[in-house]
Design a protein that fits this description.
By secondary structure, this protein is mainly beta. It folds into four domains: 148 residues, no CATH class; 102 residues, Elongation Factor Tu (Ef-tu), domain 3, CATH 2.40.30; 81 residues; 124 residues, no CATH class. Helix content is 4%, strand content 41%. The protein has a 21-stranded parallel sheet that branches. Strands 7, 9, 17, 19, 22, 25, 34, 37, 38, 41 and 45 form an eleven-stranded mixed sheet that branches. Strands 11-12-15-14-13-16 form a six-stranded antiparallel beta barrel. Strand 1 and strand 2 form a beta hairpin. The chain starts with 13 loop residues before the first strand and ends with a strand.
Amino acid sequence: MKTWIAVVSLSFVVIAASGAEEKQSTFSVSAFGAVGDGIHDDGPAIRKAIAAAVKAGPNSRVLLEPLTYRLGEHAQRDYQFELEHVEGIAIEGQGAHLINTPANNLIQLRGCRDVLVRGLVIDYDPLPFTQGTIRKVNADEGTFDLALHEAYPLPPADTWVKQRLGQAGWQWGCVIDPKERHRRWDVQMHFFIRSVRPLESGTRVYRIEVTPQFKKALSPVRPGDRFFLPLPYVRSEGRSSSMGTNFSITNCSDCTIEDITFYSARSGMVFGVSHNEGSITLRKLGVRFKADTDRICTTWRDGIHSKDNRVGPVIENCYFEGLLDDSINMGANTAMAREVRSDTEFVLMGAQFQKDDKVLVWNPVTGQTLSQTTVASLRRGRGGTVVTLRNAVTHVITGQKRPHQDIASTHFYNLSRCGRGFIVRNCIFKPQRRHALLVRAPDGLIENNLIEGVGGSAIAMGNEMGSFYEGPFPNNTIVRNNIIRNTQNTAITVYTRTKHQTAMMTQGVQIRNNTITVLPGRKGIDVKQVRNVVVEGNTILNSTE
């Protein structure tokens, strides 16, 4: 008979189902050769300690000390530390600082149960981005000259990027206010980059060329503005470094990630929470500026990106600032039918399904629900998963989730894996580029958060149909007792996004007892194409700024 365990105290006394106390095994990374001086590569030693704990089995823990551990490049691996199908293990950082390389993401938990990771502070060296002050702007040519700040890395050669990563290798950057650490509110949110070239050999001044569609958006940019530029990275053996997620939790259950702070992060999401089968608790996480630095950004991706989970995560007592994307993005990926084989059989791409999962089939143009059904069977097929539904669905329009191209294509939402029942409470959100919370998941609770100075909305609730194709709809969600101040967009916005102006898929949202301070010309609460919404007891004030 399987013995289930539960961690019941900070000392990790473990009680078995029989009630007998079991001995705990502790594996100190120092016993495996970790130095913790910030110079030596301690990655191999930490991996050995983790492997020993995994071999010992449940009730084991890995113990770091409050030292600085440098992590060198981990060849042929995307993550420094990978735990797969592990149960009952704890990694206790005790305030340890990990200095990672841009070649690798940090931690991946895959298929784990009852795993705890806590007490870590993470930074990168070299930094995965650079920054500088704009000297000259030529909007007609679509260029500006950027003087890179001292101690920030130089970009790789433009030809090197094109050869290894193609035209899209530079991604996009952001204009930052000349005095405060947030994007310039009156300038385009981002600029896709075409090329980055030094003006003269041996100098730190580079000419940045934006892609043609962003030329006009350079007009309000001025000398003295600052610019944040994420850097592409290729590993020493020449293999392209995966974007991935810095800290990934996937296909897991009953796991807790606690007291983890990132000062900077690689190109992917900071925390990726996806396809989990059971509860995931994210507590006291931080994405924040490192003290005593002049960094103008923390990361250019989401803080917590939660997608396709059977149960929504619990996110509490977290802190976010300086991000160039959303702090929290909660919902599910949309699937589209690459091929229609019959009224019940479709080749779906873009989301995962299992037998008996509930499926909503929706037309984003008409706003009409085509079917609410379940999965009868599925198998792998060429170009996607062949999914057979229990009920016939007609008038399905094929699509491949191409941004801005498949807008009319039919959406398939997995209602069994959409983050239902999530909680976000007691968190703090400071200035950043976009929304504090972008929510598509249903049956959630958002309460007792402080959100101020973000560049989008404090809370944006609704589906997405034209770019990233995310859903489903944030139905039956409670938003209460939050303090919201000086957001650049409407503080709380609730909507159904569809071409049909009378379709209302979002419903049952309660907005109660929030205190909202709005900037001139901004709205406190905006509700569009939504049914059965309660707005009650909220206080909306005008800002004095």
